[in-house]
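Section 5.1 Outputs to date
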Amino acid sequence: METFKDPKDAQTRKYLNEAGIDKAPEGTYAAIMDQITALNAYSIAYKPLISRKGWFAIIGVFVLFLVGVFWVPIEKFYLNNIPQLGSLNEFLGQLQVSNTTLYAVGFLGLFLLQLPFLKRLLDAQKT
């Protein structure tokens, strides 16, 4: 197999041979390595996405929800007294959705919930 011969290639080789190779000044390698080491020494302090207060708030809301579901009688919920929700309840009772769709909608909701937190985190890292 014959290699491609470009006339500019021979001319470029000629110029490179005429110019020679310049030696780097003494200590250049050490200076570059010191800068790389200094860049690697910088570390980002760990900062959780959701603070401790945020976790307590989430757990508190979850506990209140569980208390409301299991210990408050269903007749006390104010949503049961709205007549328009009766037809919605009948419609949703007949709706059948596959598990895959439920997982997809759940993960999409989780993703959309995380977006504002991730945006705030990335904005904080830029400054």
